[in-house]
Amino acid sequence: MENQAKSKQFISLRLKWAFGTAVGSLLIFIVVTMALFMTFTQSLFRQERSLLNQGMTNISQQLAKSDRPLTKQGIVTIIDPDQDHSLVQGADYQRPVIKELSDRHLIVNVYNPQGKNLLSTGRPDVRPALVNDRQVRIYKGAHHQILVGHMPIYSQKSRQVIGYLQVENNLNTYVNSYRQLRIVCILALCLVVLASGLLGYFLSFFFLQPLSGIHDTVKAISKDPTKDIRVPVVKRNDELAELIETFNEMLDRMQRYIDQQSQFVSDVSHELRTPVAIIQGHLEMLQRWGKDDPQVLDDSLAASLVETKRMKNLVQEMLDLSRAEQVEINFRDQRTVVNDVVHQVFNNFKMLYPEFTFTLDDDVDEKIVANIYRDHLEQVLVILCDNAVKYSGERKEIHLTLSRGMSTVEIGVQDFGEGIAPADAQRVFDRFYRVDKARSRKKGGNGLGLSIAQRLIEGYHGSISLESSLGAGSLFKVVLPIIEDEEDK
């Protein structure tokens, strides 16, 4: 039931991307459209208002030429004295007044001082207002708002009120343009939402396509962790390409860990099987008849002790390997003078193996301090020198070097013995790996020394490498980062 509920709640990232793109585009387009819509409509309204004011000015200037209160006959005479639609000559206007009276946008009404209608070009929607100054207002019309201007008409000579003028602009053109523009904006908004949603979906399908490969790979690995499958690499230079590359690297590491773990378990079981079988065989022999023979009893006890010691060493090395993988956590603040440790190990091995010739090339004059625990550096050098002693062959000579780079210190341990083939050289740092297992077991090795050394050095952000060839010996190089200005810390 829970799985069904979770599956019902699943929403594709492509749909989320498409929805987010559509909503974002809608909000942005609404803001832009509203700004353009308001600007355009306000411009239209100012044009309509200007048209009304211009008509009022033209008509009032023409009617103001009368010296007496306006009458119907007087208005006709003033407006068209020659019956030829003559132009009104003024400082600011040069257009026929008859056009103002015949303009379908405007409804002109002229009243005498007593409020009687003298001239009307249409039925007014607003009652006449006899005002003392010029006014332009918005009124509620039959279908929509209209613009109405009121003003008194003063005689140019006597400066007395000779009538009143009322001009109405029905704003039909403005309203029609307003409605058409609103419809266009709504359609544009719908188109933008649809187009941006589709574009967002297809873009998400294109950009997020690599996620399908990751999803399929994760699903396959969750069913079978040992399955060797990787995410298909895409030819793109973006975050998803880097994610795929990192993800595949993680899978490679995980696969290596699984393989190493399987190999580790196999090797441990194999390494323990032999000593356990030997001890069990001796004990069974003693139980049957060997305990009565002093010589057999001594030999069996000695052999059992040897195998027990081997098992103890193996367990100890396994513990060392486990601790080596945690050095970055437990020993990250340790400091060690590398010169002192190298010279100490060199002197100890000279004393332990007098039949060997040990040489040390130290090219460093000052103290070199590295971020490593002293015992761990000593353990690594002991492992390398011990291997060099074991595999030196007839030429019993060990060569140690100490040198400094720009920001690193390099320690080399070289023998001139058997050497290692290139195929084996790539695996000498693997757990329990031996180039010659029979000879290595006789020499007391468990195949964990180099693995411990590698884990220790890499835990301190260093590196260890091998250069070797059959019959010419081997050279192990340890490189560690240097800590500068130790005295000031």
Automatic annotation (TrEMBL):
Main location: membrane
Membrane topology, record value: Multi-pass membrane protein
Known catalytic reactions: ATP + protein L-histidine = ADP + protein N-phospho-L-histidine
Annotated HAMP domain residues: 205-259
Subcellular location per the Swiss-Prot or TrEMBL entry: Membrane
Cellular component GO terms held in the UniProt record: membrane
One GO MF term: phosphorelay sensor kinase activity
Enzyme Commission designation: 2.7.13.3
Transmembrane segments: 17-40, 183-208
Keyword annotations from UniProtKB, A to Z: Kinase, Membrane, Phosphoprotein, Transferase, Transmembrane, Transmembrane helix, Two-component regulatory system
Family matches, as SUPFAM superfamilies: ATPase domain of HSP90 chaperone/DNA topoisomerase II/histidine kinase, HAMP domain-like, Homodimeric domain of signal transducing histidine kinase
Domain spans labelled Histidine kinase: 267-484
Membrane recorded as keyword: yes
Name of the protein this chain belongs to: Signal transduction histidine-protein kinase ArlS
Taxonomic source organism: Limosilactobacillus antri DSM 16041
Protein's gene: hpk2
